[in-house]
């Protein structure tokens, strides 16, 4: 009987003690994912994560921008980390792979959309069951985020990074949003409503990210940051 079947059976029979034991043993599965991620990613070297929608078609301009971002980053010796799936993630891995750079995929087991793309290096594909562990890997081993148009998952990664940097929980690293048309409305709301109307953030928090329109400008922002600051672990 699988773990899921055991949990289902325990609920059906109201066996609360069995559920409690199952929860306790789950800690070891969580630990195993952390250990596997730390051991593999610590050996790869400086990387930049590329985020965006799994639904983006190859014909989209943002797909092409993500490919070019991967190429430009690996030209300068950075590896590329993505969520490992299709769409923008595939494009980022493709740019790195086709340029002979390091191409990393942090895949997540989902009932829809997510399957790992073919441009990830065979020894740099990690599979996760837990979103929160996967997010720790992005935060710990990325020297920068390039964020293209995406959905809820993309927003989740973006705002978690901004929050952790804003609160000093991790070292500051460059965050670039690509696509002024896509991100412009959100940025205006943050500035006009969150900052100026409600005073829920400080003005300097707007400097924690940059909005650009091209792969060249996105990559250049990363490079300029590390011309000024030394590469070091985020935490």
From TrEMBL:
Keywords: Cytokinin biosynthesis, Hydrolase. The lineage of its organism: Bacteria, Pseudomonadati, Bacteroidota, Sphingobacteriia, Sphingobacteriales. Belongs to the LOG family. This is Cytokinin riboside 5'-monophosphate phosphoribohydrolase. Its EC number is 3.2.2.n1. The keyword Secreted does not apply. It is an enzyme of class 3 (hydrolase). It comes from the Bacteria. GO terms for cellular component: cytosol. GO terms for biological process: cytokinin biosynthetic process. SUPFAM superfamilies: MCP/YpsA-like. Transmembrane segments: none annotated. Gene3D superfamilies: 3.40.50.450. It catalyses: AMP + H2O = D-ribose 5-phosphate + adenine. One of its GO terms (molecular function) is AMP nucleosidase activity. It holds the Pfam family Lysine_decarbox.
């Amino acid at each position: 009987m699988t773990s899921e079947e055991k949990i289902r059976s325990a609920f059906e029979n109201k066996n609360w003690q069995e559920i409690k034991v199952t929860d306790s043993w789950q800690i070891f599965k969580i630990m195993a994912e952390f250990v596997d991620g730390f051991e593999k990613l610590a050996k790869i070297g400086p990387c930049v994560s590329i985020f965006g929608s799994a639904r983006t078609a190859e014909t989209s301009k943002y797909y092409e921008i993500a490919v070019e971002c991967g190429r430009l980053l690996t030209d300068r010796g950075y590896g590329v980390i993505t969520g490992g799936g299709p769409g923008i993630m595939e494009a980022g891995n493709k740019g790195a792979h086709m340029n002979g750079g390091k191409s990393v995929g942090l895949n997540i087991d989902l009932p829809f959309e997510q399957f790992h793309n073919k441009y990830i290096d065979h020894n740099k594909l990690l599979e996760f069951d837990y979103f929160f562990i996967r997010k720790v890997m992005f935060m710990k081993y990325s020297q920068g985020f390039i964020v293209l148009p995406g959905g809820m998952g993309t927003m989740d990664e973006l705002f978690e990074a901004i929050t952790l940097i804003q609160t000093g929980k991790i070292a500051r690293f460059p965050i670039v949003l690509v696509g002024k048309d896509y991100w412009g409305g959100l940025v205006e709301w943050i500035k006009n409503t969150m900052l100026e109307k409600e005073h829920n953030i400080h003005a300097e928090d707007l400097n924690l990210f940059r909005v650009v329109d091209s792969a060249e400008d996105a990559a250049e922002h990363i490079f300029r940051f590390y011309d000024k600051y030394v590469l070091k672990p985020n935490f």
